[in-house]
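Changelog note: in this version the structure field was regenerated for every chain. One regenerated record is shown below for reference.
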Amino acid sequence: MPLREKNEKAFEPLVISIGPYHHCKEHLQAMQVQKMKSLKSILDFTGENSVEKYVTALREMEEKIRGFYLENLNIDGEKLVEMMLLDGFFIIERIFLGKNAFANIYGTNVLRDLLLVENQLPFSVLSKLHSMCMNQRGLLGRDSKDIIVESVIFHFDRMVPGQMKPPPPSIARAENLDANHMLGLLHDNVTRTFPRPPSSATASSPWWRRCLAWASRLPFPRWPPCLALARTPPQLQRVVQCSASAPAAVLAGMSEPPNWSFILSATELNEAGIKFQKKEGNFFDIEFQKGVMSIPTLIIDDDTESIFRNFVAYEQCNMGIFSKPFTDYITFMGCLINTGKDVGLLCRCGVLDNWLGDREAVSTMFDGLRDSVLVSPTDFHYSVIFTRVNEHCKRKWNLWKANLSHKYFNTPGALISFLAAVFLLLLTTMQSIYSALAYHYQH
C-alpha cells in the first residue's frame, strides 16, 4: 500500500498551505490574511510601493516552477505567480528576516506544516525573492542560499531529530547546496552528520553487491521535491515503484540473502541479558558494546509521527538519496518496539520520553511507520549492530546469565533470599569441613 494511505493526516497541513497542493482547502484560508500582512511587511522593509518587479521575476521562472512539481498543475500562470509571491514572502518574513512569527498559538503548527513533503516551495523562488529584497535594501553581502541554510536550521533545530548544526562554510556555499526545498535541506543537514555504513561490497562479494556499491556512488539527479506523493495514492505508488522499489526488484532475484537479520523486541532482548541506556551525541548514533545498547533519547509528541513520515517519504521517493537515516532509524526502533511493554522498558531506561502518555499509541505509531517502507539489504546503517545483537543472543552463556538474573535477581527480595541461601550454604559447608577436621585430629 502507498505510504500516504497509512496516515493521510500526517501529510496534511493544519493551518497553512504552501504551494499548490492544499491551496484551496477551506480550513487553511484564514492564513491567507497573514500572507497578505507578510507581503505588506516586506514592502515596508524594502521601502517599495509595488510588487511589479517581483511578479515579473516570477513570471520568467514559471516554467521552472511548474517543473518543480511532478504533477501537471491545473493553475493559470497569473494565479501560480500570485501563489509563489504570497507564500514566498510569508516564509521570507517569518524565517529569513527574523520576524518573531511563531510566538503565537499557531507557531508550532506552522513549523510542522512547513516540513510536509506536499507543502514545499522551490528554493529557487525563495532565493530569488530573498536576494531581490536584500538588494533593494543594500544588505546582501553573502549568497542568498547561504543565508537560507543558516536561517532554516536555526528555526527548525527543535523540530527535527538529529544534530541540527549549521554546516561549515565550505558545505553551506550555494554551489554545494543540493536540496530543492526546506525539507530536503533539513534532511541533507542531518545526513551530513550521519556516517555511512562500511561498504559490504568487497572483491569477494557477489557481482550484484559490487554493482550496487558502484551505482551508489554515481551522481544520480535528485527528483524535484518528490511531491508526487501529494495528490492521489496511485501517483504515489508509481513514484515509489520507479524509485525506491527498483533496487528491491533487483534484490528479489538474488540467490544470496542479506548478511544480517532483524533483531528481537526490547523486552525479548532484555530477557536475553541485553541492557538499554540513553546516551548523548548524534541522534542516530546507536551503539552496542558488551551487552549494553546505548541510544540517544527520542522525545515523542503529537508531531513526531508527521515528521518521521514526511522525511521517510522524501527518502523513499528520491532516487538521488542513498543514505536514508530516517528510514534506517524507524526500522531499528520498530524492531525494538512491538508492544506497550517495550515502550515502558525504553522509557524507564531513558531511551524514550513519551509525551503522548499512552504506551500502546507509541507502539502502534512505530508499527505503522514501518509499513510500506523499503530497507536496503546492502546499505542498512545498523546491520553491524543487528549482527552483534543476534550473536549475543545466541551465546548459551548469555542466555544462562539472563535466565539466572530474571529468576533470582529480578526483585530486591529475591536477591536477599538468594544471598541468604548462599550464606547458609557456606556456613553449612564450613561446619562440615570443621567437623571432618576435628574427627581427623581425634583419630
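Spot check on this record: The CA atoms of residues 267 and 342 lie 5 Å apart. The two ends are 88 Å apart (CA to CA).
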